[in-house]
Amino acid sequence: MVFIPALLLIFSLSYGTEIYVAVASSMRPLFEELTHAFEKKYGRIKVKLSFGSSGNLYRQLSGGAPYDIFISADPLYVKKLMEEGKGFLYREFAVGKLILFSLHKNPSIKSLENSKRIAIASPRYAPYGKAAVIFLKRTDLYKKLRDRLVYGSNVAQAFQFAVMGGAEIAIVSLSLALSYGKGKYFIIPSDLYPPVKHVLMISVKGSKKKEVLKFFHFLREPEVKSLIKRHGFEAL
Questions:
Q1: Same domain assignment for residues 138 and 90
Q2: Does residue 178 share a domain with residue 64?
Q3: How far apart are CA 123 and CA 134, in angstroms?
Q4: CA separation (Å) from 51 to 72, 105, 146, 149, 217?
Q5: 57: Cβ–Cβ under 8 A, 6 or more apart, which residues?
Q6: Considering only CA atoms, which of 205, 200, 207 is closest in space to residue 34?
Q7: Taking a C-beta distance cutoff of 8 angstroms, is the pair 225, 235 a contact?
Q8: What pLDDT shows up at residue 156?
Q9: Do 43 and 14 contact (CB within 8 A), yes or no?
Q10: Which residues, including other chains, have CB under 8 Å from residue 83's CB and lie 6 or more apart?
């Protein structure tokens, strides 16, 4: 029995600490690469990622989900969590870009009118879905095209509709197209939709882990900002 505390200490040091991070699906390719770089640098700290629409992740956190960090594509959800007393610290992290994506055709605003099925993320829960609807309204296309819209639960699912043939065009984030590496895309002018600001928040639970603060500061390093830009975002 004398050796049990020592064995427990060795076990603890071997497995380290886990950080639980909820990430808006538009940032999946970026955070998978960031996580690999962070774990390589810090060794025993492991990052567990969960992806979904910002709205659904907000509902999970609001309901008590034990995430340490939340990366939202809409500042509104972070502000709500702060007001609910479930957020400890937050900052704006990056700005996303909205595109038209197609696997086969040359996408353009004009080509939308000739498309029978257009995929977007759910505007109810996904910021890129909200941005897509506002873009369609600002170009006077929403009423004409709304019966042709097919909705993904998040922007990654909307992108998959275009990849798998469920839609001819998807209105999604640039980051997903860059990660996929196939197909064609058209970057929508930024004045046709509101900025899609991604915000990083440390939860009250996460604030109790020093490893979470290491991850928070890691995301501000110059090489990380370069990675953010390479994935199709504007780094803040």
A1: no
A2: no
A3: 10
A4: 10, 29, 27, 23, 21
A5: 22, 23, 24, 50, 67, 70, 72, 77
A6: 200
A7: yes
A8: 95
A9: no
A10: none
Does one domain contain both 87 and 203? yes
- Rounded to whole angstroms, the Cα distance separating 85 from 202 reads 12
Mean pLDDT by 10 residues, the chain (236 residues): 38 62 95 94 92 96 96 96 96 96 92 94 95 98 97 96 96 96 96 96 95 92 93 94
Asked if residues 129 and 158 have their Cβ atoms less than 8 Å apart, the reply is yes
Contact, 232 vs 175, CB < 8 A?
Answer: yes
Chain center to CA of 190: 19
Q: What is the pLDDT of residue 16?
A: 55
Helix (H) or strand (E) holding 115: none
